[in-house]
Amino acid sequence: MSIFKQHLLDKIYNKNAVIGIYGLGYVGLPLAMRFAECGFKVVGFDIDQAKIDSIKRGKTYIKHIPDDQVETLVDNQFEGTTDFSLTQDVDVVIICVPTPLDDKRDPDLSFVINTLDSALPFLREGQLLSLESTTYPGTTEEVLLPKIESRGFSIGEDYFLVYSPEREDPGNSKFNTHNIPKVCGGHTANCMTLGKALYEQAIATVVEVSSTQVAEFTKILENIHRAVNIGLVNEMKIVADKMGIDIHEVIKAASTKPFGFTPYYPGPGLGGHCIPIDPFYLTWKARQYGIDTRFIELAGEVNTNMPNWVVSKVAGALEVREKSLEHSKILLLGIAYKKNVDDMRETPSAELIKLLSEKGATVDYSDPHVASFPKMRRYNFRLDSVKLTRAKIASYDCVLIATDHDDFDYELIIKNAQLVVDTRGRYTEPRENLVKA
Fold first, then answer.
1. Active site members
2. Sheet strands (E) in 109-189
3. Which of 13, 170, 212, 282 sits most deeply, having the most CB atoms within 10 A of its CB?
4. Distance CA 384, CA 406 (A)
C-alpha cells in the first residue's frame, strides 16, 4: 500500500486535510462552504481579487447564496487568496473553473490549463487533485495527467488524480451540494479510494465509476439529454404555434401520463454554463473518432435559432398593431438565464437585446436580480434595470417576457402593457394584448 495514500486517507477521515478550491464561482463557492461546514479548513483560490475581498467582508456576490452563509464560511477558518504558491499548503486540489467554447465552438480549456499551470510548480507529494469542470471524455488523462507527471510524480503512488463532475443547479431549493449524488472516477484504484473518501465527508452519496473517462462522459450525457429534449420541445413549440395550439397546454396534458413521458419546457433559447456548451465538447471529441453527432448538432441549431424566432414573433405582433419593430420601444423582462437567480451565463436574453437593437428597436430591461447589465465576453450593453410601474409598463410598445422570475407582478404587467409577448408560458388564459412565443 502507498504510504502517501494511507497518510492522506487518515487526514481525510480525521478532517485534518486542507481542501484547496480553485475557482470561487457558482460551483467552487458552494463546494468550499460545504467542506468548511463539515469541519475542514478550506483555502479558496481565485484570480479575481474582488471575490476574495467580498468573502473576507462576509458579502456574497452570488444572488442565491446569502451573506450569512458567506459570513459562516469565514468563521469556519476559510482563507481566500490569489496566491497560487499556497498550493503547497493544501492536501486536496479541486479545480472548478469554466470550460467555455471558443469562437469556432470548439472546447476552450484555457481556464483549466492556466489554473493547473499556476499551481503546478507548487504541487507536492501526497496530494489529491480532482477536476470538476465539465469537459470531454479523456481530458483528465490527456491534459492533466501529463502535466502532473512532468513534475516527476507517480500517479496512484505519490500523487492522486480523479475526475468528479460538478452538478450544481443555482437557485434549486430542493437539491444542493450536500444531497446531489457525486460521480467520481479515478486514474487508479488508489486514486479512486481517496476521491471517494474525500467526497463522502461532505456529500451524502458518492457514485463510483470505473475511470475518469466514464465520469467525464456521464456529465456530458446528462447535459446532452437535456439539450436534445429542449431542442425537441422548442421545435414542437414552433409547429404548435403554426397550428394555433398552446404547447404549454400540450405539455401539461402529456405530463399526466404516469410513465414514458418526461416534461421539458420551451423558451427563448438555452442558457446557463452547461446545456448550451457541454454537448459540443462531445461533438468535438467524436469528430476525432470519425463520428458525426447529428442529434447534438440538430438540437444545437434549433436552440440557437430560438432568439431569432422570438424576435420574428415580436415583429409580427407589432405589425398586427400597425407598428414597426424598427421604431418600437421594447421592455425585456428577465435577463438571467433562469428564473429567480442572478446567473447571466450564456443567457438568451443578451442575444434577444442584440437582435432587437440591430433591427432598430429601443430596448430596456427589468430584472429584480440583476441591477445593471454586466459586461460579458460577447455583449456589453450599458443598461440598468427598469422599475416596473403602471406608467412605465404602459410606455412600451411591447413587453417581452424572457425569464419568468416569480418576483414580477404578472397581473400588473398584463393589465397595463400595450402588448405582452410571453416566451415562457407564464400566462395560461388568452388576453387581447397577449402573444405566446
1. 274
2. 128-131, 160-163, 182-186
3. 212
4. 20
Write out the three cell numbers for 206: 458518492
Residues of the chain with CATH 3.40.50.720: 3-210, 226-436
Q: Are 431 and 420 in contact (CB under 8 A)?
A: yes
- Count of CA atoms in the C-beta half-sphere (13 A) of 326: 1
CATH dotted code for 3-210: 3.40.50.720
Helices (H), 288-416: 294-320, 348-358, 390-394, 410-416
Strand partners, 130: 94, 162
Print burial letters for 190-220: b (CB count within 10 Å at least 16), e (below 16): bbbbbbbbbbebbbeebebbebbbebbbbbb
For residue 350, give the amino acid letter. Answer: A
Q: How many angstroms separate the CA atoms of 282 and 105, rounded?
A: 11
Closest CA to 281 of 351, 210, 219, 346: 219
Q: Is the pTM of this model over 0.85?
A: yes
Q: Which CATH class is domain 226-436?
A: alpha beta
The single-letter code of the amino acid at 207 is V
Over the chain (437 residues), the average pLDDT of each successive run of 10 is 92 97 95 95 96 93 89 89 97 96 90 98 98 97 98 97 92 87 98 98 97 97 95 97 96 96 95 85 93 93 96 97 96 96 93 97 97 89 96 98 97 98 96 96
Q: Is 266 left (phi over 0), alpha (psi -120 to 50) or beta?
A: beta
DSSP-assigned states of every residue in 276-291: TTHHHHHHHHHHTTT-
Question: Which of 5, 1, 3 has its CA nearest to residue 161?
Answer: 5
User: CB–CB of 330/356 below 8 Å?
Assistant: yes
